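Figure 2 data, in text form.
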Amino acid sequence: MDKPKNERDLWNTLLFWALIVLALGVIALGIYEAGQGDGFVVMALGVVALVVPCSVYPTLSNNGGSASGGGPSEMLLSEISERLLLTDQAKRIVYRQKDRELLRNAIQEDIAAGDYDAALKLVDEMSDSFGYHEESEQFRDQILDAQKRKHEQLTIEAIERIEQTCAAYKWEEARRMIRRLERLYPDNTRVTSLHGYLEQAVNDRKRDLERQFLRAAEVDDVEKAMELLRELDRYLTPAEAEPYRETARGVIGKKRQNLGVRFKMAVHDREWVEAVTVGENLIREFPNSMMANEVRDMLDLLRERAAGQRAAERTGA
């Protein structure tokens, strides 16, 4: 009877030390990985693996492996299996804590990157999968506050760009920018008020052009008045343009008359280059006038003479 007992003790001892060596190896690996910034879970599992055989071995030594119906190592394996059920739960707890930390870090990174939609999805996962309802609500408030601040900053910057576009009188571009901003922030009162701001800016520009045009016409600044009249034409409806019609006719008549005088003087003085330039300008601005028809008849000859005049100037130079 002693020989089987001695054999059981030998098997128990060999298995015990094999498990001890394995557990120490796992602990050493965990310590190494902990030095690299990770490995605490591995080290914890190694400690558990060390505790299990140490707690089981004395029991088996005292009983002498007397349980019936099994070999010398089966009792030890059965005992270890029972203990490992506890270690599985410990692993789940350890990994749960680790997953929670990873989830926290991921949420913070998404907030810092301004990816608020992704952060909110992770918050939902923290609440639904892990049950951390209070912490998830705290994160949700933090994300919504950050999102609101970012939207406010983006809105301010967009409004400033719209104001700059209006200052450059680019009305259609400003309208497109406002419509885009409305699609992004439909409930923002500052955005919805931008249409009124734009219309006021358009009206202010129209009134300013009207004042400048009348002032230029009064002092017979024909060139300035014509320039203003061309721009003003884009703002006025036919009804709004009616009060300026007589003034505009006078300015246009003076402009046509001035061009005609300049053309005739250039031809008289044999300034062919000047005559071509003024003649082309007159045809472009007053294509249906009698003077324009007269210039068209002369223009080919004038261009030939202008080309000869330029060649002579280059040769003389």
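Caption note: The chain has three domains: 1-99, 133-192, 193-316.
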